[in-house]
Amino acid sequence: MADRRFEPTRIPGFATVAVLAFVALYLPIFTLVAYAFNGGTSIAVWEGVSLHWFSKAWENEAVKSATLRSLTIASLAAIIATGCATLAALGTTRRRAFKGQTFIYVMINQPLMVPEIVTAVALLILFGMVKQWTGYQGLGYLVLAHSAFCIPFAYLPIRARLEGMDLSLETAAADLYANPWQTFRHVTLPLLAPGILAGAMLAFVISLDDVVITEFVKSGGQDTLPTYMLGQMRRAITPEVNAISTGLLGLTVILLTAFFLLTRKKA
Amino acid sequence: MSISEDAAAARSVRNAWALSAPALILLTLAAAGPLLIVLVYSFLSPGKYGNVEWVFSLDGWRSVLYTKDIFDDSLQLADAHLTIFWRSVKLSLLTTGITFLVGFPTAWFIATRPPRARALWLFLITIPFWTNLLIRTFAINEVIRNEGLFNTVMIKLGLFSEPLRIINTDAAVLMGMTYVYLPLMVLPLFAAIDRFDMRLLEAGYDLYASRWQVLRRIILPIVKPGIIAGSILVFVPSLGAYVTPRVLGGGKQMMIGNFIELQFGQGRNWPLGAALSMSLLIVVMVALLVYVRAAGKEGHGHG
Fold it and tell me: What span, in angstroms and rounded, lies between the C-alpha atoms of B134 and B157?
């Protein structure tokens, strides 16, 4: 620090603002987590560390079923979205530009552009009609809706991986008389695997986090963890919500860390 | 081009469509297609108990801006609606502005760290980015609510005698949106600054530019695409925000998103809700088009 040499990239005040921004980003999250460990019954008074609210949330049947439902929907949506996204990525990369390519891009990225509330309203209307026609009220609607809006999130890392891949390996396989399927199965797919896994994880997290579309599409008694929490927030909030949030937060951080380790290896 | 090359090209295009088909079908069924139904619904009449009657009507669109006088049927501007639109636009612009003022120094700070530290700081920005929006809204609520961290500390310190009421105000919604959308501003700004050739700064200073001149004349023009991208990424979801105003605005400080929901719930005016959704969609599409234009121009301008 003694060296006060002129540093062209330093702009006075920027570091201070940045550090304050990080404090502002994390302070509320730490507060939220801290209150989850509060021993008292109220969210206002601190009464020592306890796991009381975690066990309370764990014993709550509504929380249990919402957790199970969230995980079911997120897993199915991640699998479906990643499957579709992988095929679409294979279809839209590494070939000469063609008519309609832009249309496919726009369609795939459409969920990123349209405000969630608009999609939510659209699905409310459409699925409302279908529910009336068919009488089917199950989880299928939520799975379908989640699969659709997860596609762009799964597509991006897979496409990035494909574009960074060396074409010569596949050419080599073809030269050695591998048929297209063998080439795909034994060359392309293994190379693509980290991208697919990364895409699936992003899709899983995105589905797990969704509030708005789920809130509009779900039938009665189909709360996911986020919509359950949103419902609780309308009433008097107990630290149970903090405990649930902390659990979800933990899961997200674990998945993200894995995601970063997966995508970093490439570099 | 030979015939076989032509055939190969055609096959390649067919394959592209075949491979993309599952994704396209799914998106048509559960994302893009339903938007057309919303468009149709905006031209129908409201049903008595919600839903619609299949009678053509422009009332849905008319009542976006106008309200009919009960006595003489004359049209008047719907002040309540305009208040909500104005609040949505105002809060979204303020959110975009504040996230830029905070996000630019933050992105600069991250981009100018040594490589190893940079990865860590970037990861620290990415965690909130991927964390559930509802959880983050709830987290900021923990800080600003009446018995929250801020008020507790202020009262303990003797600075306040009673809690400062922030929750359920426009300010609370603004703080919440700034908080949840900040990473959306920082990430594209970082990407732009990261590509910036820092030697240009030295060149600027060597030519006797002041710090301010370097910032205004060298840095800002070059990272402009990142600024535009970040602003769009913050402005668009802010305008359609639903969760944050609902939790922090307490049902009274409504934004367009909440107003749309109201029409499908207690309001029982689905055509108006559909027309409002379409209006929001149009505004967002215009914003995105402006972005694409600006980004395109940027690409041609600087050779």
Answer: 30
